Amino acid sequence: VKQIVLAARPSGMPDASVFRTENVELPPLQAGQVHIRGLYFSVDPYMRGRMNDAPSYIPPFQLNAPIEGAVVAEVLESQVMGYNPGDLITGGLLPWAMEAIVSAEAIKPIDTQSIPPSYYLGVLGSAGVTAYCGLVIIGRPKAGETVVVSGAAGAVGLVVGQIAKIMGCRVIGIAGSEEKIRQLKTEFGFDEAINYKTTPDMGAALAKACPKGIDIYFDNVGGTTTDAVFPLLNFQARVPVCGQISSYNDTATPPGPRILPQVVKRSILIQGFLVRYMKEYHAEAALHLTQWLKENKLKFAETVVEGFDRLPEAWLGLFSGQNMGKMIVKA
Ligand code: NDP
Asked: Burial letters for 267-285: b for 16+ Cβ neighbours within 10 Å, e otherwise?
């Protein structure tokens, strides 16, 4: 079967040469294992960190071994009680392979009665749960507050903005294309949205959109976008730091925030978090997200790239904003 491996560790912005497609034979199925066929593959910004040979919260990808990520798959054969051919499953660390033999611990069943299977990679997967944990648990939004989210049209950002609206906040999104800005305002209920690629003075644009200042800044991108947001933070503002995609391909460490004197004076809370270490909130998040989807209070968007071979292209596209909502590859 076809699989995609890490062929080389990139320096700076990666290109397709860091990946290689190869054909391998599957080992025989053993007790405790299932044979799966990948249907939907998630591509995620955090995978860039795993390409570096550096210690982190998750070990680096191994050279010449398959890339791993979240996958929705169909069971073809099973040596595990409770899994039968035709069942749909998901797992967060499954190989980029058209078929694979995996252990029962790596997968869990999914309910696709009223939920599209691919949603388990997005709004009901890591992205949605991350949005919930960062905004609700760390940000603690109150009705009437102003929330700004960067990376607003991506998988996490779309959910952050809509939860903030559900909680009665004024919501401003920052994203990188006119079409994204239009959709945030017309389809996803954002009060304002600002294109960071075409707005010459982000500080002025944000000040205009946030006349009462900013109470929560949910940061997905960092860099100059975050520089523009910080001066507008209110007394006791909260800043859940979710991601810093603008620096993932940097070869040198970017300068630290210059805002720290104001962080003291305004009693601002800046807190980084990883959704994987907030497991105690995952069930609560899934419950609320599912409920909001069913009540049509929460909408989601996906950019689906067709074809297993296009996994590298889809992943690289995250760094130039090719996706609205969750970027997914359909095998
Ligand atoms: P997205 O769906 O948001 O895709 C990435 C988006 O980032 C692109 O669409 C692009 O949109 C934007 N982007 C790319 N390069 C830049 C840049 N240089 N400056 C500003 N924006 C840029 O991805 P996710 O929703 O999966 O992830 C969003 C963030 O959350 C990432 O930083 C990710 O690492 C982080 N994350 C953190 C988790 C945690 O546990 N802390 C868990 C999951 C994700 P645009 O067109 O607007 O530029």
From this structure: ebebeeeebeebeeeeeeb
- 114 and 138 fall within a common domain: no
ipTM computed for the complex: 0.99
CB 95 near ligand 1, within 6 Å: no
Rounded to 5°, angle at Cα 73 from 68 and 76: 120
Could you give the angle at the alpha carbon of 184 between the alpha carbons of 238 and 229, nearest 5°? 30
Tell me, yes or no, whether 273 and 306 share the same domain. no
- Kindly state whether residue 292 falls inside one of the protein's structural domains: no
- What distance in Å separates the CA atoms of residue 149 and residue 274, rounded to the nearest whole number? 17
What is the residue with the minimal CA distance to atom 17 of ligand 1?
246
What would the pLDDT profile of 47-65 be if each residue is shown by its tens digit?
999 999 999 999 999 999 9
* Ligand 1 lined by 43 (C-beta under 6 Å): no
